[in-house]
Amino acid sequence: MRELNTVDIYCQVIDNYGDAGVCWRLARSLAEHGLAVTLWIDDLARLAALRPALQLDLPTQRLDGFSVCTWDAEIAPHQPADLVIEAFGCRMPAAQLTAMAAMRSPPVWINLEYLSAESWVDEHHGLPSPHPSLPLTRYFFFPGFDLRSGGLIREQHLLAERHAFDAKARDAFLAQLGIALEPAEVLLSVFCYPSAPLGELLKALHDGPPVLCVFPGGLPEGCEALSAGAVRVQALPFLEPDDYDRLLWSCDLNFVRGEDSAVRAQWAGQPFIWQLYEQAEGAHHVKQEAFLRRYLATFDDDLAALLAPAWHRWNGKTQTASGWPALVSALPRCLVHASAWAGQLGNQSDLASRLLGFARKIR
Hints:
Strand 5 (83-87), helix 3 (94-101) and strand 6 (108-112) form a beta-alpha-beta unit. The chain is built from 14 helices and 13 strands. By secondary structure, the chain is an alpha/beta fold.
């Protein structure tokens, strides 16, 4: 078995906060295994929005059990770690690859891919890709939802902390955020891209059960005017990742976007609707359908018939308005399935454990 003591993670922030969030969570998760982890990131300000404790004027600093270093095109080559991870197809400078190739025992080189439930992921997970000119091999590592994939990022104590988050802890956390629920009010969190049919959702809920929609990071433009009838809206500050987890645990329904918040919504064990990052030629719709086939497999037919159209509408696959009030009324039944799904995933090993197990077998 190969000995692994150090890890380099390279993160190029393309858009929004998901790239930075996933890499930060992976770095923290690997550090929990006792490795010396360095996160190299090209947009420190974006990561600092998630972790305000970061100091933007420091090119190297320690936080959350690992090192964070600014990565730019002019940085000199450095001593490669035992395990080198390129997140989401980012490319290290040629000089750093040369430094890796010059080592007597080159590091394990991993390309961490985006999350997908598509069937081809299992077939491509772990495949090697030799460098065309250097004595290096990169391996593709795909996060996923079954044992043939790379799994999902999950901190070692996450599920225990979620189970310990009882009604008293929930009330205290919501009070800390300034959230005061009215009797029988349903709590929704909404984190979405601008293309989501938010106005349609809020208007449809006006005549249904009482609902409070909270928006971490602030209210979208024009949203406050839609607070009427049975619907209240409330802005929240941009939450740090652990507090965002607690918000997901606290809500009856979570609207999430991108990869990082979608995974955290699944660990929350609460009903959720995932708005996938929009891709050319509707590729995100294919990913959505692949996930729904897995997620809804154990749902009652009538519940699946409520939830699937809501996902389709929220992701722009159809223009037909979904039965939002009926879905909100069915949330207690959806909760049973969401909790079971989280338990099913929790019985599997996490991404960091699988990644280290895979890398230690590379000769």
